[in-house]
Amino acid sequence: MSNTFGTRFRLTTFGESHGKAIGGVIDGCPAGITIDESLIASEMHRRHIGDNATKRHEPDRVEILSGVYEGVSLGTPIAFVINNIDTQSKDYDTLSDCFRPGHADYTYEMRYGRRDPRGGGRASGRETATRVVAGAIAKMVLKTKGITFCTEVVENSNPPADDSCGGIIGCTINGVNAGVGDPVFDKLNARLAAAMMSIPSAIGFEMGAGFAASRMTGSEFRDCWNEDFTTQTNHCGGIQGGISNGMPIMFRVAFHPVTTVCQPTECIDHNGNLHTITPQGRHDRNHIPRTAVVVEAMAALTIVDFIV
Amino acid sequence: MSNTFGTRFRLTTFGESHGKAIGGVIDGCPAGITIDESLIASEMHRRHIGDNATKRHEPDRVEILSGVYEGVSLGTPIAFVINNIDTQSKDYDTLSDCFRPGHADYTYEMRYGRRDPRGGGRASGRETATRVVAGAIAKMVLKTKGITFCTEVVENSNPPADDSCGGIIGCTINGVNAGVGDPVFDKLNARLAAAMMSIPSAIGFEMGAGFAASRMTGSEFRDCWNEDFTTQTNHCGGIQGGISNGMPIMFRVAFHPVTTVCQPTECIDHNGNLHTITPQGRHDRNHIPRTAVVVEAMAALTIVDFIV
Amino acid sequence: MSNTFGTRFRLTTFGESHGKAIGGVIDGCPAGITIDESLIASEMHRRHIGDNATKRHEPDRVEILSGVYEGVSLGTPIAFVINNIDTQSKDYDTLSDCFRPGHADYTYEMRYGRRDPRGGGRASGRETATRVVAGAIAKMVLKTKGITFCTEVVENSNPPADDSCGGIIGCTINGVNAGVGDPVFDKLNARLAAAMMSIPSAIGFEMGAGFAASRMTGSEFRDCWNEDFTTQTNHCGGIQGGISNGMPIMFRVAFHPVTTVCQPTECIDHNGNLHTITPQGRHDRNHIPRTAVVVEAMAALTIVDFIV
Amino acid sequence: MSNTFGTRFRLTTFGESHGKAIGGVIDGCPAGITIDESLIASEMHRRHIGDNATKRHEPDRVEILSGVYEGVSLGTPIAFVINNIDTQSKDYDTLSDCFRPGHADYTYEMRYGRRDPRGGGRASGRETATRVVAGAIAKMVLKTKGITFCTEVVENSNPPADDSCGGIIGCTINGVNAGVGDPVFDKLNARLAAAMMSIPSAIGFEMGAGFAASRMTGSEFRDCWNEDFTTQTNHCGGIQGGISNGMPIMFRVAFHPVTTVCQPTECIDHNGNLHTITPQGRHDRNHIPRTAVVVEAMAALTIVDFIV
Fold it and tell me: How far does Cα B9 stand from its chain's mean position?
């Protein structure tokens, strides 16, 4: 019971990778926002490309079911669905009774007592498509307030033959006024961290100078004032005491490589017996480029939740 | 409005550093737990020591006001207070109309339009005392389920003369069964990240292999099975798909140095004029050793919220 | 931002009366529950019949999109949609720029600055269809615990020609063990009251002896013990101190008549000018019989939220 | 886990009747509100008087611990405590191992497995003192927006000798603009109903014409427009579709009599044996007059939560 993100601009998502559809409901989008479906489509396109290791031809047409009337939001819930029309469940038949290493197969089974074994089910990276849709709508709200997002791949490599690689994505949020954030537990940096770590394969998060700041002295680290209330450096990443200070908000997210590689792999069955299989299906060898738009979407959903 | 942590075992804290008292209310502590006040005191002692840079002689006697009858929890809210009896507000008089660099002075003023300038007010590290009390009670609940916590200072240094230093704290949680965590947004790692990043001066978080995992290949990173459902490595830090896998849960938190150092410092006033002051008062030159118990407390509060 | 009911078994609904679809997402349904789609259909049928004043031939086919695999719940979100296929929006064209008396036209416009004028939009009684679907699933969960629901029309009349009538519905919940409810603010009776008053046209709620209890003495009102912990009377309606006592839970809900009647009606436009119209479209003259299943659904959603 | 009321202006209360203290924490009170402690005291006085059947000389001095600096709210949590200094626990010794009829003794024991038997513990009407404090602060916020509250005892009687009586309290809220409320589940009337039914001994709630509306026709019930957007009648009680329409908000709450009367009473012990006792201690024979301020407080807490 945790498929809801946010408290004011609240996204609830649903759907298994190979079920009928995935989708979401946004509750709390202000009335009067022009909903640009072409922007949603272009964000979905950013998620679809990348290194094209994912062979699924996801058309991923997003259909809005409610909350928008004559192209403008009503203030009522905006529901959207994406039908799963290109599923190849037979590729996954061999996985239904064994757990892959490095995957959520085993943990979902321990959590729920059962799971949809097809394509990772709910644990599939496919659920991030719903984040991108909602993130696009969040951006439409935030654009009216001058807030924009920029991501870049900070570290990435070519995966070796038959293997996969991870990387680091940096994100900068511009235009957030000073005064956004809710201490002491819903600090803006705490909420951003939770948002980012909820993305599949995220394994590290840092604000501003990040881990390097742990090796700086206080006099090096502190960001000195300019007379216009900007600061000369931005080691803190734009947040102090959990509240934005008006500088760009900057953070980085580390992602581990996708753990399914098309090599012989030892799985374990319910009885604890190991079996060697060679995974079929569509698996990203380098998911970093296409994950950038997911990072942006979660950043937008985090910010909009403080601001609506 | 964010002074509540958790949804089932729910801590609400209050208090400014130099007000009458700080404290908290725990709602959702199960009935029937023996509340060991000496354990609370010993955890408070762990937070008090360290390098003793903090000259405040905080006796920090914790008084429980409700929810405990004849030494056992009732299931009703457990309220506790710590009176602020050793406050030296006059040390802070010079700060009431200027904003220090690297502090939350400016951001609180932007957020609320006013603040208590004495000793950092609500933004003071002093509020972590309430986290330690609640964390101690959370540990009493978790001990009945065999869950224990261990922290160590992974990186730290001696601060140079008249300056401060940061560091990295590692935490291991043992005894959490497989199956704990709520995908897709309240993943156990996402909740731990938020908990840790809410600690004053936290600036980075990583699970398991962390940022280093972004440079590994998939075949290196994935944790291979043993026949007893443990894994040969623990690169993921004990969590897959947002759910515990039964291995130790391991993470690290990076902290930046405290930004108040007893050196000439340029503050800015409401009109944008810079003033050089030399801070007085009590300031930690090395807060890392005493922060370990705060990390543990937040870890305990995170885990107990999934388990009660 | 209030289209979510419940905290553990959490229903989020969406949809305007004459939009593409209405529907909902249930988050928190336990895994392993057999989802009987024929029971959903029969509950929808109970909502459809009644006095047939509603001429809409709502087939209201419910399609489940996620969360169910091979007929059994997965523990992941259960999303469902009902397409709006029999909408006659032209009947409502005359209403787009005026506010009917006794309706939510004006209040929605004041709340959101705009609204979907077709058929009441989000304020239409049509949204209760989603409550019935979710209530049916809640009943499947509760049946496994021996909890059942029974409603009856306590007061109702034949509406006079060309007019509408209200009534009172009584509900009894059997099989709830003693000990359910969360004082002091989420008392079981408080949650039931909120659930019932959220139903369109609900205007009163009472537990057990209800308003009549305000005229009893303490010695008359108090429910005396039998030796098996049942009570000789049930004036309190099965709840004491906000917690169930093991007796049947009994309450009544009063509903006002539907305010659209096919008579000349004075509407008001944005400028405060009154206009006499004669409403067309489909309007219930007696909605009480078909509302009983909605009362039951909300009761089931309330109870299941305490019990899962 | 339910001792929190509200989502934006959020009150968390604690305390057993005969423990050290009762109190609360308000999170979300806006910064800049003048906190008038004499108004809190006068509201507490309204709760203290009445028929004086309660012989406890509750001075009930309210001490504010945080969130207020120089008489003005900071935006940080406002914590307050009321020490329990006039407790006569020995009066309740005979009750520790038996359950009174009509009380929460049995249900608390079933819910939590234990309870504080002194004076009703957490289930005592004493907890309403914390609601009155928070309600007074809510009123200070709402007064700045022109919103005021008025209650009257609508029905009440003199209790017969050695017995107790109930009654009905009416409440009118003036000054709420049109547009307040969050359909479809957090309708303003639904939230008011929950707030009122959470008050000890509340047993019925109705808006506007209430139960009588169930016997009216649609053409009688609907409130016809005046040209200034007020209505000629107020049968709906000022709320349509869950949203305020700008008319006075009007509702009534029915309360059952206090069930402890100083007459021989059959209690039941854990083994199901009945024992006749004659209750001692302080018990209200007519709690209606002093409950009016509690009704007002909960109304204020409900409204402020939508408006801050």
Answer: 16
8-state DSSP, C155? E
Going by their DSSP bridges, the two strands C10-14 and C4-5 should be labelled as antiparallel
What predicted TM-score, i.e. pTM, was given to this entire model? 0.97
Cα dihedral sign, A125-A126-A131-A137:
positive
Out of D10, D13, D112, closest to residue B31 by CB: D112
pLDDT above 60 for C55? no
| Structure token digits, residue D136 | 């007074």
Q: Give the separation between CA A204 and CA B41, rounded to whole angstroms.
A: 34
Sheet holding D148-156, edge to edge: C148-156, C167-174, C249-255, C202-207, D202-207, D249-255, D167-174, D148-156
The CA distance from B133 to B67, in Å, is 14
Q: What is the pLDDT of residue B50?
A: 59
Alpha-helical runs (H) found in A126-212: 128-143, 188-197
What are the chain A neighbours of C6 within 8 Å (beta carbons)? none
d(CA C168, CA A259): 60
Backbone angles phi, psi at B31, to 5 degrees: -70, 150
Which residue in B187, B231, B171, B234 sits closest to B208, CA to CA? B234
Token pair for residue B80? 């506790």
Task: Answer yes or no: do C12 and A22 touch at CB < 8 A.
Answer: no
Helix (H) or strand (E) holding C134: helix C128-143
Summarised one tens digit per residue, pLDDT across range D210-250 is 999 999 999 999 999 999 999 999 999 999 999 999 999 99
Instruction: Scan for tokens 């945080």, then name that residue.
Output: D66
User: What Rg, from alpha-carbon coordinates, does chain A have?
Assistant: 21
How far apart CA C127 and CA C16 sit, in angstroms, is: 8
Supply the DSSP symbol for A3.
-
Instruction: Return the residue matching tokens 């993470």.
Output: B251
Which chains neighbour C (Cβ–Cβ under 8 Å, 3 or more pairs)?
A: A, D
Q: Taking CB atoms and an 8 Å limit, are D63 and B20 in contact across chains?
A: yes
CA distance A291 to A41: 16
Structural Rg of chain B based on CA atoms: 21
CATH number at residue A246: 3.60.150.10
Number of domains in chain D: 1
- Rounded Cα–Cα distance for residues C293 and C169 (Å): 10
- Using a CB-CB distance cutoff of 8 angstroms, which residues of chain C are in contact with residue D211? 168, 203-204, 206, 211, 254
- Torsion angle of the four alpha carbons C242, C243, C246, C248, in this order, in degrees rounded to the nearest 10: 30
Interface test with A, best of C7, C27, C66 (most A CBs within 10 A): C66
- Partners of A273 in the beta sheet? none
Tell me how crowded residue B30 is: count the other CB atoms within 10 A of its CB: 18
The CB density around residue C178, as the number of other CB atoms within 10 Å, is 18
CA distance B102 to B113: 19
Alpha carbon separation from B15 to B25, B220, D27, D68, D76 (Å, rounded): 12, 48, 11, 10, 8
A268 CA to centre of own chain = 29
Per residue in C175-208, pLDDT (tens digit) is 999 999 999 999 999 999 999 999 999 999 999 9
CB-based contact D183 C231, cutoff 8 Å: no
How many Å apart are CA C148 and CA C132, to the nearest integer?
15
Give the relative orientation of helices C288-307 and C37-48 as an angle to the nearest 10 degrees: 140
Which residues are within 8 A (CB) of B121 and not within 5 positions of it... i.e. 6 or more apart?
A: B16, B17, B18, B108, B115, D69, D74, D76
The domain of C182 spans 4-307
Give yes or no for a contact between B41 and B62, defined as CB atoms under 8 angstroms apart.
yes
C166: Cα within 13 Å, side-chain hemisphere:
28
Q: How many helices (H) and strands (E) does chain C have?
A: 6, 16
The residue among C114, C134, C101 whose CA lies nearest residue C22 is C134
| ipTM of this complex prediction, to 2 decimal places | 0.96
